[in-house]
Amino acid sequence: MATVILLLPVILPLISAQTLHWGPCPTPMVQPNFDLNKYLGKWYEIEKLPARFERGTCIEANYAIRPDHSIQVRNCQTYKGKVRTAEGTAVIQDIREPAKLGVSFSYFTPYSPYWILSTDYTSMAVVYSCTDVMRVFHIDYAWILGRSRILPPEHVFRAKELFYRDNIDISTMKPTDQSDCDKIL
Predict the structure, then answer these.
(1) Structure pTM?
(2) Which residues lie closer than 8 Å to 81 by C-beta, 6 or more apart?
(3) Which terminal Cβ of the chain has fewer Cβ within 10 Å, N or C?
(4) What angle (nearest 5°) sits at the alpha carbon of residue 18, between those of residues 30 and 150?
(5) Residues 31, 117 contacting (CB under 8 angstroms)
């Protein structure tokens, strides 16, 4: 515990734009019978918990199978007038729970959880990730994704209900600006 207190001045500036909570990560239910092949393709970010790596507009993600059976993740956003992309790799870490993916955007970092809580594959997906810091506190990431840049309000409401059901605090969730994106991307 003393180590955590000593590290707080170093850690807090790094996570200032994140959603921080005391205690270990929650373990929400994930999509039963998840079908990765139906999930592949383009998803648009509709709403998210603040994340320092996603500060732009027109945020989208593309998922595709690579020849080695890993999943290519290509995220794209407009930030300060420029299109920025990040390419990573996702893997199914346990075949018994295929909705629990691990994602990494660097060879030097371990896979982070990327759990699909719910999806209908054709219009929306609800995704959660959590980083546990020595079981003292955790950093939440949460996304509502759509196959189109705009989702009907009732879909967003239903997605938020899933987070609340699993005691995931999304009170700081913000809409992603998806306006005028076709002119930029």
Answers:
(1) 0.87
(2) none
(3) N
(4) 60
(5) yes
